[in-house]
């Protein structure tokens, strides 16, 4: 029997207990391989994990978030800081319009 969680039918594991942590990690890995989503708690919020190289899993994540897939455009200028690498801020900072788009942004 899995530990109870707030959501019916969804197991929860006490990550401060080594045995439960190991069991939870093994089940999470298996779920990700099946293309399912896994909710991972952090110290402040919950993260949602999916197999990034499986299109159905990514679509499942986007559906759960109510989002759509759209390429992120990022500046590839070496002089721009990562936090300011949007194409617009790059044009304003260094005058270039060099931007790349792709899955990693």
What features would you describe in this structure?
Residues 71-105 are annotated as: Disordered. Residues 31-68 form the YrdC-like domain. This is YrdC-like domain-containing protein. It comes from Pseudolysinimonas kribbensis. This protein folds into 2 domains: 1-69, no CATH class; 72-100, no CATH class. Strand 1 and strand 2 (46-49) form a beta hairpin. It is extended, with a radius of gyration of 19 Å. The protein is of the alpha+beta class and 105 residues long. 33% of the residues lie in helices and 15% in strands. The model is unreliable at 97-105 (pLDDT under 50). The chain has helices at residues 18-33, 55-65, 87-94, and strands at residues 38-41, 46-49, 72-75, 99-102.
Layout of secondary structure:
Blueprint: H1 18-33, E1 38-41, E2 46-49, H2 55-65, E3 72-75, H3 87-94, E4 99-102
Antiparallel strand pairs: 1-2, 3-4
Backbone shape: extended
Total helical elements: 3
Q: What is the share of helical residues? A: 25-40%
End-to-end C-alpha gap: 42 Å
What proportion strand? 15-25%
| Nearest-integer average pLDDT | 75
Main-sheet strand order equals 1-2
* Overall strand count: 4
Poorly predicted regions: 97-105
Structural class: alpha+beta
Order of helices and strands: HEEHEHE
Q: Characterize the main sheet.
A: 2 strands, antiparallel
What value does the Rg take, in angstroms? 19 Å
Number of domains: 2
């Amino acid at each position: 029997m899995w530990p109870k969680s707030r959501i019916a039918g969804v197991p929860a594991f006490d990550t401060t207990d080594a045995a439960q942590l190991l069991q939870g990690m093994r089940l999470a890995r298996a779920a990700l391989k099946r293309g399912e989503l896994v909710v991972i708690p952090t110290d402040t919020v919950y993260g949602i994990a999916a197999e990034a190289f499986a299109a159905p899993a990514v679509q499942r994540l986007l559906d759960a978030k109510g989002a759509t897939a759209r390429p992120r455009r990022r500046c590839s200028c070496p002089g721009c800081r990562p936090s300011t690498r949007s194409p617009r801020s790059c044009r304003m900072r260094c005058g270039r319009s060099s931007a790349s788009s792709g899955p990693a942004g």
